[in-house]
Amino acid sequence: MGKAVMLQWVIGVLALLGVSQVDAEDPYFYYTWTVTYGTRSILGVPQQVILINDQFPGPKLEVVTNNNIVLNLINKLDQPFLLTWNGIKQRKNSWQDGVLGTNCPIPPNSNHTYKFQAKDQIGSYTYFPSTLLHKAAGGFGALNIYHRSVIPIPYGYPDGDFTLLIGDWYKTSHKTLQQSLDSGKPLSFPDGVLINGQTQSTFSGEQGKTYMFRISNVGLSTSFNFRIQGHTMKLVEVEGSHVVQNLYDSLDVHVGQSLAVLVTLNQPPKDYYIVASTRFSKTVLTATAMLHYSNSQTPVSGPLPAAPAFQFHWSMQQARTYRWNLTSNAARPNPQGSFHYGKITPTKTIVLANSASFINGKLRYTVNGVSYVNSDTPPKLADYFNIPGVFTMDSIQGLPSGGAATVATSVMPVSLHDFLEVVFQNNENTLQSWHLDGYDFWVVGFGSGQWNPHKRKTYNLVDALTRHTTQVYPNSWTAVLISMDNQGMWNLRSAAWGRQYLGQQFYLRVFDPVRSLTNEYDIPSNVLLCGKALGFDP
């Protein structure tokens, strides 16, 4: 596919989505989405799901780097609702992040317009509901950012582009799941795995041609392994990073993560299994789809391609093979490797230990002994309007400590332009997945046991990739480096939604005392106000 054809294809996709465009250097696209309940038979049982414009999953957002998105979201549910844009950095604009620490939720039978830019980003992302357990009912979708025509990509244009939203699924309603968590029970094991909201899907292509598969884990709690019968996958992009293009037979994808692979249809013409199966679980749940060659006369056959025989160590070894392509650019023309992150001395080291605790007789998840509770007033609004008593900046410390677990609306202060070393220490027997809004970070190290400063000798300080969500293996640690260059209030959370809901999260307040539009956009004129912020004039 030539460049002109590719550009026409992207424009055509946008036109098909029914969005209107205003011609400008960085064009604006306008959307109206209506969120409703609907009934779908997902795993053979009719159940209530959340639809966006009557779609499950929701509409696919296809934009180009630096496009501006103006999206009017109409909430027709019986509960307040928000969408968050997973991996979109919202440069200088945490006002649009769509989480309860920055935004008041949209009340039932009301609406709110998001306004944000896909600034200096390319790659495969998702959006999903950040409120309550709405994510368990749907409301999620793909958000793909294509490169500008003047910026090259480090691979040939694919002959087609498939998006696969893969995740665990529960037959239980989101309200019942929420009640179970509220009662102090952990999230139960899911009932199945879906690919694009279905148990059966087909992806068709022509023999000899190459296709991009954008794969995201949109589930609540479970890692999966992805593979295609008889085909290898060339990894090209991970959450906006162009990576060294290694070939893989299968790939582990953890909750909240996204990646893109190229697959060449170079096998005899027939139909082949596409498989996603749960990892690290006693019971293995499997979803299958079909890769159909257009000239195939032979139905899919044979056993499903096997999952990796080995568990956490194998997965950690695979994760270490993901490396930045230093000579490739990403969304901007300068090569990724021109930023020598490994030569910067961190200004601060933060060690974050997750744990399960009982507080007032009920299960809560904590970070350094503190379990986050949402306030009626978003900390971002309380900070802006100088409203006291909403959040604390001394409850969560930068190192784990002993003592009884506590609850707080916990915010950790960070100075704009700090360069942080953050170590996620997982002393539990379950895999963790950590996500940071507003940023990506260099994943420089994985290791077993307890982290200590001597582990820095094992860091990859040359070509570690950047991403927004990283896994932490059981009884292990993961180290990341973060350039704190995006002012705002940013959610650092477990991507496992039951753990997030029960407190495994907090906010980073990235701040410069000099208020300047150079550092952060002003509060939107259409900001929703709630709690103690009601009555203030934005």
From TrEMBL:
<dbReference type="Pfam" id="PF07732">
    <property type="entry name" value="Cu-oxidase_3"/>
</dbReference>
<comment type="similarity">
    <text>Belongs to the multicopper oxidase family.</text>
</comment>
<dbReference type="Pfam" id="PF00394">
    <property type="entry name" value="Cu-oxidase"/>
</dbReference>
<feature type="domain" description="Plastocyanin-like">
    <location>
        <begin position="376"/>
        <end position="511"/>
    </location>
</feature>
<dbReference type="GO" id="GO:0016491">
    <property type="term" value="F:oxidoreductase activity"/>
</dbReference>
<keyword id="KW-0732">Signal</keyword>
<dbReference type="InterPro" id="IPR045087">
    <property type="entry name" value="Cu-oxidase_fam"/>
</dbReference>
<dbReference type="GO" id="GO:0005507">
    <property type="term" value="F:copper ion binding"/>
</dbReference>
<keyword id="KW-0325">Glycoprotein</keyword>
<dbReference type="Pfam" id="PF07731">
    <property type="entry name" value="Cu-oxidase_2"/>
</dbReference>
<dbReference type="InterPro" id="IPR008972">
    <property type="entry name" value="Cupredoxin"/>
</dbReference>
<feature type="domain" description="Plastocyanin-like">
    <location>
        <begin position="161"/>
        <end position="296"/>
    </location>
</feature>
<dbReference type="InterPro" id="IPR011706">
    <property type="entry name" value="Cu-oxidase_C"/>
</dbReference>
<dbReference type="InterPro" id="IPR011707">
    <property type="entry name" value="Cu-oxidase-like_N"/>
</dbReference>
<feature type="signal peptide">
    <location>
        <begin position="1"/>
        <end position="24"/>
    </location>
</feature>
<dbReference type="InterPro" id="IPR001117">
    <property type="entry name" value="Cu-oxidase_2nd"/>
</dbReference>
<feature type="domain" description="Plastocyanin-like">
    <location>
        <begin position="35"/>
        <end position="148"/>
    </location>
</feature>
<protein>
    <recommendedName>
        <fullName>L-ascorbate oxidase homolog</fullName>
    </recommendedName>
</protein>
